[in-house]
Amino acid sequence: MYSKKKRSWVKHLDFTIIDIACMMLALVISYITRFVILGEAADTSIDLYIRMAIMLVLIDIFTIFFTESYSGILRRDKYQEIRATLTHCFIVFGVFLIYMYATKQSLLYSRQMLFTYLILSVIFEYFARVMWKRLIRRQKLLDKNKSEMVVVAEASTVERCLEEIAHNKFTDFKVTGVVVVDEPMKGQTIQGIPVIANAEDFLEYVRTNVVDEVYIDGNTRASSEALANTLVELGVTVHISLVHTNFLLPNTLLEQYASYVVLTTSMHIASTRQMFLKRLIDIIGSIVGLVLTLIAFIIFAPIIKAQSPGPVFYKSVRIGKNGRRFKFYKFRSMYVDADKRKQELIEKNEMEGNMFKMEDDPRITPIGRFMRKYSIDELPQFFNVLKGDMSLVGTRPPTEDEYEMYKFHHKARLGIKPGLTGMWQISGRSDITNFEDVVKYDTEYIVNWDIGLDIKILFKTIVVVLSGKGSK
Fold first, then answer.
1. How confident is the model at residue 345 (pLDDT cuts 50, 70, 90)?
2. Does a structural domain hold residue 246?
3. Is residue 249 in a domain?
4. Which residue has the higher pLDDT, 351 or 322?
5. Cα dist. 108→23, 37, 100 in Å?
6. Which of 43, 49, 240, 472 has the fewest CB atoms in 10 Å of its CB?
7. What is the pTM of this model?
């Protein structure tokens, strides 16, 4: 029988319990210091701080669920752990501060006690994590309680296979032997691991020796499956190599489609929690944005009509994620015949590639220049975000004619939902005149995406928009 690897949300339950214990210890010590040792009577009952303890635990679990605080924790060094602990503690404390102000309880708590708690929680959690990791690593290095694995491979691949499997110190198994199926190498050693059998007597070895697991790095699917079936009948757990992922992108995920087990690879693989949080931020942001859109409509709609008769809103078809088409909305900043006049001005395009940008574009109305400078014309796109066609942060959606001129590598920038803002907008906006640079920034965003990067881009966008830097 084989024990499945733990799912990510329970994989580090030990660190969750340790962090919560450290938080409670920090809270108790800070309370005792403030109200017992210093001899100052509490302004409120102890029930208030019991509620604080409960809220801190709930916030901590919420933070772990959405930020994956323990991802790669065993591989972090001490300096990386300091940063991770500070980030985790400040997020929990910050959310609690928001809770206090939202429930109008901020005046009830002792500020001295709160900040003492924050400092102590960082110190306790950091040292507890470091000590627990040291203990885990020490246990991992011991062979006790590890399952015994035999590697089956061919002479051409056995060296590479053992390098990647046998010498990893932090596994739940130990490689006790190797079988080379296409050459008689029994009795030899490869990278310090004995060749315990040849193809002919391997099954007899399994019958008479301790073998918990077998890893098959087979050349053919048929031979691997035949051997696996026989080994399973002997009560051995079998792992069959499907593909060597060094030949693929680094982001891989094993999934099941119908009766097929598939290895999925992509530019970036996001967790369900990350995508849920991104969509939640999009919904909240779009609702706020639509309120601003309504205010802007009241102010600018009469001016747009006065300067250029026609609709207040400009609608066009844009290209979204992986080539999907959708209706795209803006406040109209150009004269109504702007699309027809674009071909007349194409020779004055200042962009090198599949985008059109032109300084002093004669199609833009006077109020349109002002709206574009501060991105006011973009506000109706919050409706696209609410609908789900776009996100707050992503890549700018191309027009249909721009998309038709795309080369193969250009489509990579459409691997995610288009956004109101993105990497290239905060890196120069219209000052960037080479479309290949736009593709580079957008691809970099997709590969390195996480919620923290979105928040960073959103804050930088606010600065860029308010300054009007790089706009045309």
1. low
2. no
3. no
4. 322
5. 20, 20, 9
6. 43
7. 0.67
Number of structural domains the chain divides into: 3
Residue 256 lies in a domain: no
For the stretch 164-223, pLDDT in tens is: 887 766 677 888 899 998 888 888 999 889 999 988 888 889 888 888 888 888 766 667
The Cα–Cα gap between 143 and 254 comes to 28
Q: Beta strand pairing status for 260-265 and 252-257?
A: antiparallel
Q: Specify the length of the chain in residues.
A: 472
Kindly state whether residues 312 and 429 are assigned to the same domain. Answer: yes
